[in-house]
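Q: Structure for this?
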Amino acid sequence: MKRAADQAARAARLCAIFAGALVVLASSRAAGAQSPPQIDVQTDEPVAAVGDRVHVQATASSPEAMPGNPQLGPTPGFVVRGQTASPSQVVTFNNGSLTHGYTLTVDWVLEAQRVGTFQIGPPSFALGATRYSGRSVSLRVAPPGSAPRRRAPARPQSPFSFSPFDPWRNLFPDLSPPEPPPQAPVTIDPKLSLDAPRASDVFVHATVDKTSAVVGEEVLYNVYQYTETSLVGQTQSGDDHVPQVADFVKQSLLPDGPDRPTVGFASIGGKTWQVVALQRWALFPLRAGDLEITPLTENIAFALQRGMVARSSETLHVRVSDPPLSGRPPGYAQGQVGHFVLKAEVNPRSLQQGGAIEVRVELSGTGNLPTRLSPPAMEGVEWMAPEVHDSLGPNGQGHYGGQRTFDFLVHVNRAGSVDLGELTLPYFDPDPKRYEVARAALGVVRVAPSDAPKADAPASAERLPGLPPPRDALVNRPRTQKHLADSPVFWLGAVAGWPMALGVAVGGDAVLRRIARAWRRRRTSPAAELRDRIALARTAYDGSDARQVDAAIVRVLEAAAVANAGINVRGALGDEVVRRLEGAGVAHDAAASVAALLRECEQARFAPEAADLAAARDRWGRAERTIRMLERRG
Amino acid sequence: MRLPVNFVRVRRSTVRVAATIAAVGTALGVQARASALPPVAADSESSTLFASGAKALHEGRAGDAVDLFEALADRGVVDAAASYDRGMAYAMRVRIGAEQGGDLGRAAQGFEEARELSRDSHLIDDASRALTTVRSEVARRRLRAGQPADVESGRTIARALAGVVPEDGWAIVCVVASMAFSVGLFLRWVGRTTRLRVAGGVSAGVAAPALTLAVAMTLASRHDRLELREAVVVSPSARPTDERGIALPGATSLPEGALVEVIDERGDSTRVRFGASDEWIASSAVRALAK
């Protein structure tokens, strides 16, 4: 009986458990079909200025399925600039039961377009065949620059420390970007301000503290990243392209490591910008000229946007000149610019000949400290190469400098009191713009003579034996001296003059000979003879001697026959004259006229009675016409 | 018929005119030499620097002497004695055991420059002697290091011939040869006797090649004076590089103190000719000779 009662009680408990399980199962099924997702809507700023960007974030969580198809809804006064969806799924096994959690977080980036108060949303999600909406948010848009300073966007957090959808949240370290600390009120540094921002969100800006310098003078080069304060903590810098400064010696003034110090805040274009130092270098120009510093390029990733943007700084130029020649002290080496101090310590002050002392020289100051010093070289004192220790870096004023120590070992091979002289370091101080000389007196060391044979003594004698003596006076020869070959007068006059003169002589002689020959030929030609005789005949015509006129006419006719017909009629008479002339192609009339005139002239010349001048002049007239007839033939 | 011009007289006049042209031309040409710039005295500051340097040299303060003579060079003072003493200062620094890298080369550069600048045979002789001493030391060191001991490359025959006589000497030879050539031809032309004509022909025949040679040597000397840029290697390790300044593997460094011809300069590299080799080296490894 009791056993039966126990069995009945056990069966009743099993039935109750089974029934309970059925009730739970049935109730969960019913709930799954009808429960809406939990939708949470947040915004980072309730107030924004025109042009600002605002984030609206909606999170939909469901234990049954992943919410989908998110829609923001109406966005009056704003334009949607971006949307990012982040789905997540959590599976929890607790006390033998398996629980699923599905969450979809959507972030919309809105840009304010006009002033006013606007209701955004409500955002909605689809779950199964049903769409569920959250609450709308109210955003106020103020005029540009008048919105209150924006705080960093808050990460959506569960109101409880434990979330049933993400129970592991507090178990593992958070690998997402750290949340920016709450910002304290910032102080604007006017020195960091610019006329206008170089970009609307993040940009890089480079500066130098001077645009002209001398070779070796420190030029402070800074590169800053300006981040609009609402984006602080939401950007991540990628690889930088470091500026090229091949014409400079570069010394970094920032501590090693990835940390980039914030140097302050700037107000530019009505916005507040956080300024971070990316690079800070002390640059020392190596040569004169217009030296270029290439831009720094930084790749920047935004937390809520895909991809990266590249931001570059400006290309800068520095005009570099040589320090002035005037007043430059001996021993000055190019690049020794800054402000230096020398200290020297000699130890010991007494030694044996051939022994060594230590000279410790401390060079300190600002600027690019020289890497070597020229010790006062003198006979019998041999300076070994020093051991150098540096302690250099940025000083309190942000300049490069520090201390460099040179430990010399000096062999003294002379006995007696040896004055080591003084160490000098000439440098150009860029502040007063004048040369200075840093000095450190080394003092005197007492060297006891050594009895030991001088092992090192021959070394100096072996080096460069037989050098001639130095000179004690400048030559003062002119630097630029004219040379004969530089003068065209030398080449044309002294060298080419003689052959040219010979050429003039020979050529002139040849020309003169040719002229004389031509002249002579011209003077002895039949035509010239004819012109001469005509002239004489005219002279006779004007006289009073008729016989002379006739004789002249005869000579003219004879010359005309030679000149125009090539025939000599001298000694010929009558028909013989006509025959010769006709044989030469002269017309009969002309030939007959010549013959007649010759005959008449001969008769008149040798007639016993007195000569008739008028008749002779008449014959000259006829003779002229006859000559023209002969010329026409010619 | 009697001619209106006395051609014999005209011919004589022509010869006289030609002779006058030649004489005036020669006088003007030589005048170019006579009008050389007068000597310019160094300013008092430079003279003081030189005197201080010479004093330091006498007192064995080689480092100070180097600084003082370099300061003189920085002021643009180009003087054979200053270059010579600068070379002496570097040589003394080597001699007293305070040598710094490149001292031998800088000493050689000073002596080479003094030889180039000086017209004083004593100074030239002393500079040559000192140069030989310095280069012997360089050769000895290179030999010890297993490197070729040639420090001097030697000059080409034409350049050596041109250097036998100074440029103005060649120029005077040009004038004399030109005159002899012209007079010889003149005698050959107007000589009445066979003896005179032969003498003129021989004179012209000898003078013509002499004139050609003298003109060539004068032009070569002038070209060298104006165009040739020489420098001395002042680095103990002047390693040949390519045009970008990257050291050539296995190349032998140029000897310190060697006289090289500068052919080209690009950035920090200088192309030099040393003997038959034609190399790029760092510009800081050579120092040019002042002219």
